[in-house]
Write a structure and sequence with these properties.
By secondary structure, the protein is of the alpha+beta class. It has seven helices and ten strands. The protein is globular.
């Protein structure tokens, strides 16, 4: 069995130094669609160094590209075909606002391995702290097709009851044809998002957008629409990746707002509102 659950869970955590600069933050923001319109004062908070703040989802790429997925696949006890791997979900807890530049220590480990029958799910946890203390905790759920069935723990269901009533706000965000090519410059170079031949091997008609790009686009929409553009109000953010997005499509982002949290559902407009993100919650002040 390519995944040895006991070995993966028993492996020592891996720690390393990560660094990021203002340009990394700016590139990430451009990769999730910031800067349109380019001179909009609200967009300049994402693109202009003198006004720069950091969208919390930058934590998923800070210093190491896509640390949860890539690091998880290189842990002891894990030996799988990259073409069978999908990013199943992501959760992020912020301990304090992310500085626009910094040096920190990232410690990663496999926190759980679940047997879903026809697939395995790895939970890769990355905890990041700098000299002033904890910054954030990332959990990446890594879905590996064809690697389940050994009789292990199925894990939590993870499905939430759908939001009730009409959404408080609905916005649409267009995805550029080159969005995946731009986003991958933040470090996630999985060929699934750029190489048509690799995408076909993985079962897709053409390259798909990174799930974490959709994740960032969605959080930005919530912050800009409901939180007054104040990134420091975000406390945590979690989602399940329910479907793919193709570059060139349009995202429809529905939001159900409450004082301390916002439920979100994201779909692809051109494919009859096919679900893209589900079980999505932004907790905030």
């Amino acid at each position: 069995m390519p995944i040895d659950a006991a070995k993966a869970l028993a492996a020592d955590p891996r720690s390393g130094e990560i660094r990021w600069e203002r340009r990394d933050v700016q590139l990430y923001h451009l990769g999730i669609g910031a800067g349109r319109p380019a001179t909009d004062p609200d967009e300049l908070r994402y693109t202009l160094e003198s006004r720069l703040h950091v969208l919390p989802s930058f934590a998923t790429v800070a210093g190491a590209g896509s640390p949860g997925v890539i690091s998880g696949l290189s842990m002891p006890g894990v030996d799988v075909d990259l073409a069978k791997v999908l990013h199943g979900g992501q959760s992020l807890t912020l301990h304090r606002p992310i500085p626009v530049a910094g040096t920190a220590t990232a410690t990663g480990r496999i926190a759980a391995v679940y047997d879903k029958g026809k697939a395995a799910v790895l939970v890769m946890r990355t905890e990041v702290a700098d000299a002033d203390g904890p910054l954030w905790t990332n959990d990446a759920q890594i879905f590996v097709r064809g690697e389940g069935g050994w009789g292990g723990d199925r894990g939590p269901a993870g499905r939430l009851d759908p939001p009730t009533g009409e959404p408080d706000r609905t916005v649409e965000r267009g995805i550029r044809e080159d969005q995946a090519l731009l986003y991958r410059l933040s470090g996630d170079y999985n060929p699934l998002h750029a190489d048509p031949e690799f995408a076909k091997l993985a079962g897709f008609d053409r390259p798909i957008l990174h799930g974490l790009c959709t994740y960032g686009i969605t959080l930005k929409a919530v912050v800009d629409t409901l939180l007054g553009g104040d990134v420091s109000r975000v406390r945590s953010y979690g989602t399940r990746f329910a479907g793919v997005v193709y570059p060139g499509e349009t995202l429809r982002i529905r939001m159900w707002h409450a004082p301390d949290s916002t439920r979100v559902a994201v779909s692809a407009v051109e494919r009859d509102d096919a679900p893209v993100l589900a079980d999505t919650i932004v907790e905030h002040s």
